[in-house]
Design goal:
It contains 15 helices and eight strands. It is of the alpha+beta class and about 400 residues long.
Length: about 400
């Protein structure tokens, strides 16, 4: 066997170029084999051992491939050391391969360290007091410093120069680069912040009043974010404006499953009065109000009885009002409406009286976020409220129109 090996070696040495190619092939094969052994034996064993722990079963840590990234160092080391043993290779080519392998090793270590920082942030967020002292901002700054140093080391390794030489000239270049690429740098920082903080996504409905943008995000690029407004026009917003200008993202509304209704009915204040016996009996016809009127009558009767026992004047007695009965009816109507979300805030309240009437505000949420269905449910509710108002002796307030003035003039 040694004789055959020596014979084959002697034969290959007669053909230097073929000998070099064979050595290169064996070197690449050895690097690939080492990579396969490390990833399929050592890495898989470590990953399986990690998955058997509580930390490895966390779904948020599936993308943190620290061990797999570090395993890529092995073939790079083999190529870096073995390329010097390949005969007849030009020194320049050997130097290039070693520099590239060195830069790859630096990049791999940096990515692994970035994964460690992500892992540290994830583990910290499990603490009960993590929301009081978040470290996400510090982690992001650490990653920026890490990747900046990594970039300098990679460039220094590729050109085979000391990093100090690069740092000495970096100060002078920084001012020029920042002036030339100012918008690009600002957009890059904004993109990182948007991505890290999950401010917007493609498909989100966002509203930015300062730029008259109101629609769905269709594209997020480095410099611009495209928003298709609901009138089908396209608004192009600089990415950095999402960090400097206020905007509203309706993603939370869509994810909650309910959309808010906040609208008032303006009631003519001159139509507000106490209910007499006939009106109270007539309102008992409403199944939604029967129990309310009964309980209210019992409550007021007990109150007024105590008042009479103390010799107070009857004018001080409490009575049921038509506006209070209507407010109770509206609340019960919303509680029974199939389109209203019953597990979110629901209330009917009076706002401060204005010169345009007494606002009775409806505040609730629909059980859908689809625009057309939302508007249909909202319109259905207020259609009913406006039509049922006269049953309570109430009137909707509105300013007089030209027909009103004409009617007055004809009456004279």
């Amino acid at each position: 066997m040694p004789e055959q090996y020596n014979a084959a070696l002697d034969w290959l040495q007669r053909y230097p170029h073929l000998y070099t190619l064979v050595c290169l092939g064996l070197l690449v094969l050895g690097a690939w084999l080492a990579s396969w052994l490390v990833k399929h034996l050592l890495v898989r064993t470590l990953v399986r051992a990690l998955r058997s722990t509580a930390l490895g079963q966390d779904p948020s840590l599936k993308d943190v491939n620290i061990i797999r990234r570090l395993a890529n160092i092995v073939p790079a080391l083999i190529l870096s050391v073995g390329v010097k043993l390949v005969p007849e290779l030009p020194d320049a080519l050997v130097e290039i391969v070693r520099n590239v392998c060195g830069a790859f090793i630096v990049l791999t270590i940096a990515l692994a360290l970035g994964g460690c920082l992500t892992l540290a942030n994830t583990l910290y967020q499990r603490r009960a007091d993590a929301h009081l002292r978040p470290i996400k901002g510090y982690i992001q700054v650490s990653k920026i410093v890490l990747y900046a140093v990594t970039t300098i080391l990679i460039i220094a390794t590729l050109i085979d120069r000391s990093p100090l030489i690069l740092l000495s000239g970096l100060g002078a270049m920084a001012a020029v680069l920042m002036l030339i690429f100012q918008d690009t740098l600002l957009s890059l920082v904004a993109s990182v912040q948007i991505s890290s903080n999950d401010l917007i996504r493609v498909g989100d409905w966002v509203e930015m009043p300062t730029l008259s943008a109101d629609g769905d995000v269709t594209d997020i690029a480095l410099h611009t974010v495209q928003i298709q407004n609901f009138d089908k026009t396209i608004t192009t917003v600089p990415t950095k404006r999402f960090l400097t200008d206020p905007f509203k993202n309706y993603r939370g509304m869509r994810e909650s499953g309910g959309r808010r209704i906040k609208r008032s009915v303006l009631i003519d204040q001159s139509s507000v009065h106490f209910l007499d016996g006939e009106e109270s009996r007539r309102l008992h016809r409403f199944s939604l109000l029967d129990d309310y009127l009964t309980k209210k009558a019992e409550e007021l009767a007990a109150w007024n009885q105590k008042l009479e026992e103390r010799g107070k004047e009857p004018v001080n007695t409490r009575r049921v009002t038509n506006i209070g009965s209507f407010r109770a009816y509206v609340e019960r109507y919303l509680r029974s409406h199939p389109g209203v979300h019953q597990h979110m805030t629901l209330l009917v309240r009076q706002l401060s009286p204005t010169s345009d009437g007494l606002p009775l505000e409806v505040y609730c949420f629909t059980n859908t976020t689809v625009w057309a269905q939302y508007e249909s449910i909202q319109s259905d509710i207020f259609d009913h409220l406006l039509a049922i108002l006269p049953e309570f002796g109430l009137r909707v307030f509105q300013h007089p129109s030209g027909n009103d003035f004409q009617a007055v003039m004809k009456a004279r």
